[in-house]
Structure prediction request, 204 residues.
Amino acid sequence: MFKLRPLPYDFGALEPYIEARIMELHHDKHQAAYVHNLNKALEDYPELQRMSLEGLLTELDKVPEVIRTAVRNNAGGDFNHTFFWEVMKKDGGGEPKGQTAEQIKKTYGSFDAFKDTFSTAAKSVFGSGWAWLVMGKNGEIAVMTTPNQDAPVMEGLQPIMGLDVWEHAYYLQYENRRPDYIQAWWHVVDWDKVEENYRGIVEG
Ligand code: MN
Prediction:
C-alpha cells in the first residue's frame, strides 16, 4: 500500500509566501486523500499495489478501466505533490543554477523571459491543474501545463520543476488572486533541487 510521505519541512517554512495553514491542509488533507483514494482503488489489485506511482502513471493502459480514472487522479495527485514539495524550500528563490540556468538562457533568452513564460502558462490553466518545466522529447526544456492531477510522465516527459495552481494551493491566503500566488511562489523555489532534477534527467 502507498503511504503519505512527510512534508520535507515545517508547515511554516515557506511563509510569508505560502502560509502554514495552507501547507498543513494541502499535505495532511489533500495529498493524504490522494494516497487514501489510490489505496482504495487498488484494494483488489495486489499486483498493481506493488507498482511505483510513476509506473502506474506511465502504464495506465494496463490498469483495469473500472479503476483507471481513480488511479490516474490519485496516483497523479500523490506523485505531483511529492515532486512539488521538493522543488520548494525555506529561503528559496533567487536565480536558477548550473546547467538549468544555461538551458533557460539558451531556450528563453533570459531568466526574466522564462519567468514570464512559466507564469503566463500557470495563470492560463483553466480550472485546476499544474504548470511544469519539463525535458522535452527532443532534449530541450519546455514549459507545459496539465489539467487536474495529470503528470508530465503520462506523456513520457520528465518534470524538472512544477507549480500547483489548484485553488486549494492558494485560496486561503490569496483568495482569487492566482497571479499574486504565482509571483510569490518564485521566492520559495529551490533552484538547487531543480538543478538536481535537471542533471538527473540528462545524466540518466
Ligand atoms: Mn495540490
Notes: The longest strand covers residues 129-135. Residues 20-41 form the longest helix (22 residues). Residues 12 and 20 are 4 Å apart (CA to CA). The mean pLDDT is 97.
